[in-house]
Design goal:
CATH class of the largest domain: Alpha Beta
Number of domains: 2
Helix content: 25-40%
Largest sheet: 13 strands, mixed
Structural class: alpha+beta
Order of helices and strands: EHHEEEEHEEHHEHEEEHHEHEH
Oligomer: single chain
Shape: globular
């Protein structure tokens, strides 16, 4: 067994960087959260991580542990930060349960005395602390346009036709003004949802910062244009040959009703195919994302770390596991009370 490490607060070793990039190139589930450029950018902004290349018995894995709040964190409730090298891998999770345990054992060792939080597509073995944290929808990218259209919900196909008939055209965002326009659309969308968001589009941040994040090579921003005006947009993280991740959206209400968001999603699948991507991670399980086709993958939060965290981890896992049951009982009691009053 061998383990090679890079702590991003230390100078990067060129040999490690090359090996890391080569491993991701052979992992169909590699995403931008594992991409070397992205991790170097995060480190330059004080957000550090430990990267591990693990090899054992002919098997190669890659693992990221972010340094957050004094602990070590891997992944998010809709995206995990561990992969195995296997170009032929076709399962949506990208890891089987045994591989997950293998990488978790290394994460546990690397965490040392720090608290460990890992999001994985498989639950822990018996008695290990963990709880259901989220879910996402993963769709294989492939097939020609007609095959993709046939795989979509009937309503989605209708919206694509409507958006085109109403004059929408999707293109890659070009220039800072397009990025600024998308930032305004995001603010408008959040306002419709009742979320107050400050208008930052009047300022001009440095390249790659704030609403200019789409300038990074691991990001793509598609916009839906009608009559020369950007009315909707969707942003993605992308690793050619690996995964495409749906990250952000904004639109006018009129564009949404006309199906512009659906047209953007369809064009994103075409872009992913042209870039050689293997999977689309829709980043959740909303009705919109489910109807885009794919497989639901439940994500578990697994807890570990030093001995001092054994009791806190057990308490947190117990409380989080019990929360849905308590909520269910409470709603049942309320429904019963309402029936009695009626």
């Amino acid at each position: 067994m061998s383990v090679a490490l890079w702590h991003t607060y230390e100078p990067e070793d060129a040999e490690f960087a090359g090996r890391w990039a080569a491993r991701l190139a052979r992992a169909p589930h590699a995403h931008f959260g594992l991409e070397g450029g992205h991790l170097r950018w995060e480190a330059a902004h004080g957000r550090h991580a430990t990267l591990a290349l693990v090899e054992e018995a002919g098997r190669g894995g890659a693992l990221v542990l972010r340094h957050e709040g004094g602990g070590r964190v891997s992944g998010w409730p809709w995206r995990w930060q561990m992969v195995v090298e296997d170009p032929a891998r076709v399962t949506p999770e990208g890891l089987d349960p045994e591989e997950t345990e293998w990488l978790m054992s290394h994460a546990q060792r690397l965490a040392g005395s720090h608290r460990l939080t890992c999001f994985t597509p498989h639950p822990p073995r018996a008695r290990a602390p963990g709880f259901a944290a989220g879910a996402t929808t993963l769709r294989a990218i492939g097939g020609d346009d007609e095959e993709v259209l046939r795989s979509l919900d009937t309503n989605k196909r209708r919206l694509i036709r409507r958006a085109r008939s109403e004059g929408f055209v999707v293109e890659a965002a070009g220039g800072i003004e397009a990025l600024r326009a998308f930032a305004r659309l995001q603010r408008e969308t959040e306002r419709r949802r009742g979320v107050a968001v400050p208008d930052e589009s009047t300022a001009t941040p440095a390249a790659g910062e704030a609403w200019r994040e789409w300038e990074h090579p691991w990001m793509r921003l598609l916009v839906a244009v009608r009559g020369g005006t950007i009315e909707a947009g969707s942003g993605y993280g992308i690793v050619p040959g690996g995964m495409m991740d749906y990250r952000a959206n904004g639109s006018t209400l009129e564009a949404k009703k006309a199906g512009a968001n659906m047209l953007l999603a369809f064009e994103a699948l075409r872009l992913g195919r042209a870039s050689g991507c293997r999977w689309m991670n829709w980043g959740g399980v909303t009705e919109f994302k489910r109807e885009m086709g794919g497989v639901r993958v439940d994500v578990t939060c697994r807890l570990g770390g030093g001995a001092m965290w054994a009791v806190p981890n057990r308490i947190q896992a117990t409380l989080r596991t019990a929360r849905p049951r308590v909520a269910g009982w409470w709603h049942a009691l309320r429904r019963g009370d309402e029936r009695r009053r009626a």
